[in-house]
Amino acid sequence: MEVRPVVYGQSSRPPRGDYSRAASDYTCTQNYAAYTEVEHATWRQLYARQRALLPGRASSDFIACLPLLGASERIPHFEDINTRLQAATGWQLVGVPGLIPEVDFFRLLSQRRFPVTDWIRTRDELDYIVEPDIFHDLFGHVPLLFHPVLADYMQAYGAGGLKAADLGATELLARLYWYTIEFGLVREADGIKAYGAGILSSAGELAYSVTSPIPQRLPLQLERTMRTRYRIDDYQHTYFVIDDLQQLLDFASSDFAPLYDRLRQLPEIAADERLPGEASIPV
Ligand code: HBI
Ligand code: FE
Questions:
Q1: Binding residues
Q2: From ligand 2's centre to the CA of 126, what distance in Å?
Q3: Cα 21 to ligand 2 centroid, rounded to whole Å
Q4: Residues annotated as region Disordered (predicted)?
Q5: Is 81 a member of any domain?
Q6: Considering only CA atoms, which of 233, 194, 228, 234 is closest in space to residue 211?
Q7: What mean pLDDT comes out for the span 92-100?
Q8: β-bridge mates for residue 191, sequence order
Q9: Whose CA is nearest to atom 7 of ligand 1?
Q10: Model confidence at 73: pLDDT above 70
């Protein structure tokens, strides 16, 4: 099988990763020796900046799990994290050259294997990057893979993705991923906090998501969330808020097929739209 790069969204540039290194399931070995000292310094700088922003903004589950990632000083070896991750929740990290096709992505998740991009952004991309890199994938996603509930949700999501592919409903399911795993907020005793990787790996959006009066924050509801389009090139206009991580797993246990049938009859909702009767949760 020919392994081809994947381009998502409106990006007109070719993806950065070298897909010729990838196996037919898109995984590749982490070429650790290739990281330069400048790249390790980029990692250290991103990690320190982001960790300092977490208190009061990131979910308590994320803050509790982050030390299990380790690796604050240099780009980590995937195998080192895998030893701890295997013991904690049975997940394994696998290297990938970048974004991979949806079905391959879902299949890996359903096998409790999380694809991690193995290259890091350049010095002039510290604040914004168009494709996920190793910092987004590791710092944003991997701490909560140590959390048993989130770990099970991710696997359920992957299995659900394979079913959605058969039903032609991956666009609907991808919105749930976007508004939970990437940009999810959770209500805690002392306020709304972020648990989504896209927020947690972003210096600007972390504070914005939990304090700015501009975006709306709505309780997560499957139908509403799956109807809502999203922006990939701007801070989010709408965030969906859960009560706790268990709520995600409870959602994932239902059969989505009838839901997809219903949603196909309903119009999409714009990223910044507010429906009659909806109220944004105050921060
Ligand atoms: N590939 N490496 C990688 N990382 C992702 O987060 C990812 C992907 N391919 C597809 C994809 N995400 C999205 O379509 C998910 O919504 C399913
Ligand atoms: Fe991500």
A1: 136, 141, 182
A2: 16
A3: 21
A4: 1-22
A5: yes
A6: 194
A7: 97
A8: 188
A9: 99
A10: yes
Q: Which residues pair with 117 in a beta bridge?
A: 96
pLDDT digits (tens, 9 = 90+) for 262-281: 999 999 999 999 999 999 99
Q: Which domain, by its residues, includes 26?
A: 19-262
Between CA 19 and CA 215 the distance in angstroms is 37
pLDDT grade for 15, boundaries at 50, 70 and 90: confident
Taking CA atoms only, the protein residue closest to ligand 1 atom 14 is 102
d(CA 166, CA 173): 12
Pick left, alpha or beta for residue 14 (phi over 0 → left; psi -120 to 50 → alpha; otherwise beta). beta
CA 104 to chain centre: 16
What's the mean pLDDT in 134-163? 98
Q: How many CB atoms lie within 10 A of CB 187?
A: 16
Q: Is residue 183 lining ligand 1, measured as CB closer than 6 Å?
A: no
The CATH number given to whatever domain includes residue 104 is 1.10.800.10
Q: How does residue 236 score in pLDDT terms, banded at 50, 70 and 90?
A: very high
End-to-end CA distance of the chain: 50
Q: Give pTM, 2 decimals.
A: 0.94
Q: Which residue has the tokens 């140590």?
A: 146
- Asked whether residue 106 is domain-assigned, the answer is yes
Among all ligands shown, which has an atom nearest to the Cα of 177?
1
Q: Which ligand is nearest to the CA of 140?
A: 2
Residue 181 in contact with residue 196, Cβ under 8 Å? Answer: yes
How many structural domains are present in the chain? 1
